[in-house]
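Can you give me the bound-state structure? Components:
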Amino acid sequence: MASRRAILAATPGLLAVALARPAGASPEAMRQAMREFLGPDAPVPRPGRVRLELPPLVENGNAVPLSVSVESPMTATDRVRSIAVFTERNPLPGVITAQLGPRAGAARFATRIRLATSQQIVAVAVMGDGSVWSDSAQVVVTLAACVES
Amino acid sequence: MARVLLQVPATARRGEVIEIRALIQHPMETGFRPDASGVVAPRDIIRRFVCTWDGETVFSAELHPAIAANPYLSFTALATASGTLEFAWTGDNGFAQTETRRVTVTE
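Here's the bound-state model for the whole set.
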């Protein structure tokens, strides 16, 4: 009987933990999103070939310039198929998923992103031969996005 | 219609890799942000961007709420033959906008 009482007493706490989890991404959520993007048979991303550029210190997390470039000849057969960017501690781990056609000419793009807090950002590139490469960057944010205005 | 800023060279040499920059006016409301009364504003973002050259995809992207307001994208295209570049943005609440630019490719 004591065990049932213990379980009942613990339930609200467990529920609160379970409900609080999806509110913010975690390193595990980022890895999960990465697995979903790559698919079940993809190899583990290797560091190299990808270059993720972000300012190391950001004053305003509402618009952080980000650029990704990948070493690739970008021919019809040997090219980058897709590039995705993930964050560790934003409310959602996904930032952008880009597909490059044979007409892209070069494997690079740039955009502006939001960062909720200081964290690690990871870029993953999938090549035509199925190999997966990645690069990461650590960013310190002084004024976070998503909090106000 | 949202305001769009597009930077596309009007002419390019054959085989040249041209730089394209596209910016569209959009709040990209994340769906996590409470307004002054504490009510969380519903998500309203652009979900997808596609750039095609005479119907062939050059660059496409899925955008998430982590993309800053007024989404800006710069990317490249390989100039092989004169044609029309089409830029299409689609998003929440039926948002859809298309712009076209003509590029003349010279020898």
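A couple of observations. The radius of gyration of chain B is 16 Å. Chain B has a mean pLDDT of 94.
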